[in-house]
Amino acid sequence: MKNILIINGPNLNLLGIREKSIYGDQSFQVYFDSLKEDFEENVELSYFQSNIEGEIIDKIHEVGFEFDGIVINAGAYTHTSVAIGDAIAAVTSPVVEVHISNVYQREEFRHQSFLAKNCKGVICGFGLESYRLGILSFLR
Q1: Which of 3, 4, 46, 82 is most buried by a 10 A CB count?
Q2: Environment class of residue 42 by beta-carbon count within 10 Å: exposed (0-12), middle (13-18) or buried (19+)?
Q3: Is 18 marked as a binding-site residue?
Q4: CATH classification of 2-139, choosing from 3.40.190.120, 3.30.70.100, 3.40.50.9100, 3.10.450.50?
């Protein structure tokens, strides 16, 4: 059984409510519950969300030497946080960066990631299914 943590950053607590044309109309909790059911035989899934950069860093430090993988959507911190990128580099658990939208079809500033260099891979543009693809990358 693999232990995998999903981390969501700022404003992702508003999924299903905010900018539905970009992020869809499903809450993350509903989606997360379906992921837990789909992977229940192979994966112990945990979930953490924060709008606060330091809390995200603390969570990476807390699990980053024990868990089999971390799937992170750092939201806007992807494009601004050297500190989260450094936290990913500091731990031994592999990390996959995910995004719901295709960031390369959006504003220019979203094309830069301070996390990607330290991640196993990056998945974007598949809606909420980006998280499922990230989890699958740890199982194959």
Answers
A1: 4
A2: middle
A3: no
A4: 3.40.50.9100
